[in-house]
């Protein structure tokens, strides 16, 4: 399936691809590849992904999507796609990306010169790791309902309240947060976008383990935390403008869904080809299993074609498709269904809980064959695909309003 | 769906939409299907004039050399308008067999006439027991001096009532079900020994049951090599599946437009239906279905043009477009309420065509199986 994702390459593209392959081949150690392959949710094991970011930066690939003025590559959409394709294929670790892919574009757009100078280079070099403080116990998909209280004083804003579902906050040294700093009849107003150091006195964490067993989330508490007013991004009380800009990046797909799906399907096919059906034959000969797999491949072919066509359309100067959010409703479902079938593929070995064995460097041996380590926690972790970044029903609301005009 | 089309294709798509909107209203269609023939000669002449009947043929035979993508665009427009004239059976299917299998002389004889709308063909390749397997052929063609004698039966032959010629599959060797030994013949519809029972179909079209008794045809009526018709029939079926998926896509688009419009205007419990969130979500899901079906159908057209993974992609298209159209059709009826299940409204006619097409060309289960067969997971396995 992965073979079909890129479509035909021009000679220039092929040589670009070769250059990326050479770099990855030379720099991805077996441990790094294993970390990439065992990624459960958006980010690989942190120490591995951190090490990889350092390597990327040392070779000028720290933030290929950024404009070149900030140290990016200024590549075309097609080159970025090839980059991502080769990284996916080689199982490069997925780097903790909230700083690089979400916060940085906002700093570039709304930041002061000082903020740009202070933060952007350290994101690029892998010295700073940002967490995203958006959701709260009473504000999930309805983000603007947030209540983290920020009192604006002479020089500082004093924060009280908490953020939750904060991915990898235990590794972050910075966090970008939304806080309610002003009163307004409209709940989207009166919010400020803050750039905060995690070691500021008054910040504490409560770890939250997700179904895969991983310490993925945290609740972050703010108890009289003083943030200098120079750390507001954009205008005070106008953080929603920044959020709207950021959400384009979060929803607009930094990643290619088709590629993610193709990689998963290749993996599923491989899993099924080493598993047996209990009668001495390959699981691929089980008609029910093969059929379910075929259905997912067919769905993926449609999704993949739609994405290729939309990319090609934009490349040839056509209007950007408004359909990304719509198509994501389906592709998220299909992506989850693949992980579900993968768990079914490994049969009884779906049961062992082996969080330590899949942690690189733990020295703990795995029970059973190596290929059984991923499917179950992957299936569990991927339930988040229809929660993070808005539930399908939120997306349906958006599409009904914006695309269907209801 | 926004496809990446060439400027010519994009303007072709627009002009097709205009042609069917202007000349193939639901009212006109209603009149056409109320007539026994269910074939409007003026419409067929208009299609000829627009170049649609000559579209897939080679310029050598007065054709336009159109691609599978071009054919997609025609079928999409026809799906929107629920065109009942036998474009699919004559131009797409018979056209495919002649383009890929016929001799130069046969092409020169038939293709220009077909392109001008002066001659019609139908494909008589399914039998009562064959279901979707075009190699399951019991009709026989026995070699005689100077030609063959055909005997057997063909079922649900679309377009036969209005056609001048048939393309008939018959066995010159092997047993029913063997890929080898199937041959293809051009037979005039009025040939001695051909008897026909014509009837109406649920989708507003016409078909026939055909019996061949001692039908003598000359050697020159053979299309392609003797016993080698299976690949031709397979190619034809793939082109038909891509075309019919495109047609389903057009039907879905029309159903979605009609449903949206209905929900905006129909008031219940003091507000338009479109204000109910549960119905908004249903409309979004119908749109998702359309986009999904359109994507895989166009993928099939492009696969045909690139001659890459044609079997698997054509079946993927039919499986998905059929499944999605079924979902859209059912929900469109549901949103319209009682009038949705009457013959008075176009909604039900789309639904009939969707259901019929799945019977004629294979349902979801059949095409998932065919996809699996050609996709061959695990390489040598299965």
Characterization of this structure:
The complex is a heterodimer of chains A (406) and B (382). With 406 residues, chain A is of the alpha+beta class. Helices cover 43% and strands 13% of the residues of chain A. Chain A has 12 helices and 8 strands. Chain A has helices at residues 11-27, 30-37, 46-58, 77-89, 98-110, 113-124, 239-251, 257-274, 287-315, 324-345, 375-381, 392-402, and strands at 130-133, 149-152, 156-163, 174-180, 191-197, 203-209, 215-228, 232-233. In chain A, the strands form 2 sheets. A 4-stranded mixed β-sheet of chain A has the order 1-4-5-8. In chain A, a hairpin with a 3-residue loop joins β2 (149-152) and β3 (156-163). Helices cover 52% and strands 16% of the residues of chain B. Chain B contains 11 helices and 10 strands. Chain B is globular and about 80 Å long. In chain B, strands 1-4-5-8 form a 4-stranded mixed β-sheet, with helices on one face. The model of chain B has no long low-confidence stretch (mean pLDDT 96). Chain B has 382 residues and is an alpha+beta fold. The chains are: A alpha+beta (406), B alpha+beta (382). The A-B interface holds A 269, 272-273, 282, 284-285, 290-291, 293-295, 297-299, 301-303, 305-306, 309-310, 312-313, 316, 318-319, 321, 323, 326-327, 329-330, 393, 396-397, 399-400, 403-404, 406 and B 1-4, 260, 263-264, 274-275, 277, 280-281, 283-285, 287-288, 291-293, 295-296, 298-299, 302, 313, 316, 319-320, 368-369, 371-372, 375, 377-378, 381-382.
Query: What's the helix count of chain B?
Result: 11
The secondary-structure element order of chain B is: HHHHHHEEEEEEEEHEEHHHH
Gross morphology of chain A is globular
* Order of strands, widest sheet of chain A: 1-4-5-8
Q: Low-confidence stretches of chain A at least 5 residues in length (pLDDT < 50)?
A: none
Q: What is the oligomeric state here?
A: heterodimer
SSE order of chain A, one letter for each helix or strand: HHHHHHEEEEEEEEHHHHHH
Q: Would you tell me the overall average pLDDT of chain A?
A: 93
Number of helices of chain A: 12
Distance between the termini of chain B: 36 Å
Mean of pLDDT of chain B:
96
Helix content of chain B: 40-55%
Strand runs of chain A, count: 8
Percent strand of chain B equals: 15-25%
């Amino acid at each position: 399936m992965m073979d079909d994702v890129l479509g035909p390459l021009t000679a220039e593209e092929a040589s670009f691809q070769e250059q990326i392959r050479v770099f990855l081949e030379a720099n991805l150690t077996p441990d790094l590849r294993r970390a990439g392959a065992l990624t459960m949710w958006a980010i690989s094991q942190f120490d591995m992904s951190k090490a990889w970011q350092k390597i990327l930066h040392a070779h000028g690939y720290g933030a290929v999507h950024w404009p070149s003025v900030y140290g990016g590559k200024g590549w075309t959409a097609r080159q970025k796609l090839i980059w991502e394709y080769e990284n996916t294929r080689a199982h490069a670790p997925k780097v903790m990306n909230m700083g690089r892919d979400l916060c940085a574009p906002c700093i570039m757009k709304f930041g002061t010169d000082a903020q740009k100078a202070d933060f952007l280079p350290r994101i690029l070099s892998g010295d700073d790791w940002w967490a995203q403080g958006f959701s709260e116990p009473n504000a999930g998909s309805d983000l603007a309902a947030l209540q983290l209280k920020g009192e604006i004083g002479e020089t500082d804003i004093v924060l009280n309240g908490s953020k939750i579902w904060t991915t990898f906050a235990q590794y972050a040294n910075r966090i970008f947060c939304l806080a309610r700093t002003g009163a307004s009849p409209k709940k989207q107003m009166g919010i400020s976008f803050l750039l905060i150091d995690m070691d500021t006195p008054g910040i504490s964490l409560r770890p939250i383990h997700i179904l895969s067993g991983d310490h993925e989330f945290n609740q972050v508490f703010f108890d009289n935390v003083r943030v200098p007013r120079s750390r507001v991004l954009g205008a005070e009380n106008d953080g929603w403008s920044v959020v709207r800009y950021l959400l384009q990046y979060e929803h607009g797909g930094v990643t290619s869904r088709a590629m993610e799906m193709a990689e998963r399907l290749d993996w599923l096919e491989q899993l099924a080809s080493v598993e047996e059906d209990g009668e001495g034959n390959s699981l691929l000969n089980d008609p029910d299993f093969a059929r379910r797999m075929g259905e997912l491949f067919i769905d993926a072919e449609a999704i993949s074609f739609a994405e290729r066509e939309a990319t090609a359309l934009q490349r040839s100067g056509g209007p950007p498709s408004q359909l990304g959010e719509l198509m994501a409703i389906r592709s998220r479902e299909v992506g989850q269904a693949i992980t579900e079938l993968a768990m079914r593929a490994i049969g009884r070995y779906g049961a062992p809980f082996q969080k330590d064995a899949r942690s690189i460097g733990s020295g703990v041996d795995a029970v059973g064959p190596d290929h059984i380590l991923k499917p179950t926690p992957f299936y569990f972790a991927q339930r988040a695909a229809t929660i993070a970044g808005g539930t399908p029903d939120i997306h349906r609301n958006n599409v009904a309003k914006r695309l269907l005009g209801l | 769906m926004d496809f990446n089309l060439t400027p010519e294709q994009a303007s072709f798509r627009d002009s097709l939409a205009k042609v069917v909107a202007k000349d193939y209203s639901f009212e006109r269609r209603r009149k056409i299907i109320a007539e026994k023939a269910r074939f409007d000669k003026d419409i067929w002449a208009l299609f000829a004039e627009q170049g649609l009947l000559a579209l897939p043929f080679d310029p050598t035979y007065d054709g336009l050399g159109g691609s599978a993508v071009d054919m997609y665009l025609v079928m999409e427009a026809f799906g929107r308008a629920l065109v009942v004239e036998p474009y699919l059976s004559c131009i797409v299917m018979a056209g495919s067999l002649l383009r890929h299998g016929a001799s130069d002389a046969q092409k020169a004889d038939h293709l220009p006439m077909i392109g001008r709308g002066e001659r019609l063909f139908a494909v008589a390749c399914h039998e009562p027991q064959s279901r979707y397997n075009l190699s399951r052929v019991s009709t026989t063609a026995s070699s005689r001096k100077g030609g063959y004698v055909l005997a057997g039966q063909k079922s649900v032959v679309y377009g036969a009532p209005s056609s001048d010629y048939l393309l008939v599959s018959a066995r010159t060797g092997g047993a029913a079900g063997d890929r080898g030994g199937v041959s293809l013949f051009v037979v005039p519809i009025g040939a001695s020994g051909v008897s026909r029972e014509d009837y109406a179909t649920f989708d507003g079209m016409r078909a026939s049951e055909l019996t061949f008794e001692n039908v003598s045809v000359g050697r020159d009526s053979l299309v392609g090599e003797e016993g080698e018709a299976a690949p031709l029939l397979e190619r034809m079926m793939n082109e038909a599946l891509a075309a019919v998926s495109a047609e389903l896509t057009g039907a879905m688009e029309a159903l979605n437009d009609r449903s949206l419009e209905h929900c905006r205007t129909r008031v219940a419990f003091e507000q338009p239906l479109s204000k109910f969130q549960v119905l908004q979500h249903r409309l979004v899901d119908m749109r998702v279905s359309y986009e999904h079906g359109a994507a895989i159908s166009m993928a099939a057209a492009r696969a045909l043009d690139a001659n890459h993974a044609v079997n698997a992609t054509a079946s993927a298209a039919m499986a998905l477009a059929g499944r999605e159209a079924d979902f859209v059709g059912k929900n469109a009826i549901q949103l319209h309420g009682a009038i949705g299940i009457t013959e008075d409204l176009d909604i039900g006619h789309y639904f009939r065509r969707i259901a019929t097409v799945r019977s004629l060309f294979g349902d979801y289960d059949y095409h998932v199986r065919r996809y699996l067969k050609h996709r061959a997971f695990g390489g040598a396995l299965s």
